[in-house]
Amino acid sequence: MNAPTISELLRGIAESLVDHVDQVKLNELHSDQAYIFELQVAKEDVGKVIGRGGKTAMAIRTILEAASGKQKKRVILEILE
What we know:
The chain is of the alpha+beta class. Helix content is about 35%, strand content about 25%.
């Protein structure tokens, strides 16, 4: 079994946090130094993804950084409103 990609991991985390799973949209951009992920969820679910004081978003970013460790690229997560 293959390990999930970073985008699959992020999508799985986001879908497990929100109520409107069908409105989870993920745009992935690549550069030489970084992976950039733009996550868009329903307006009612933005707070669930960001969390109190941004703690949930910070935890998601930490997981993504750990998952990309061997690829030696930064991971940038932008949560769009």
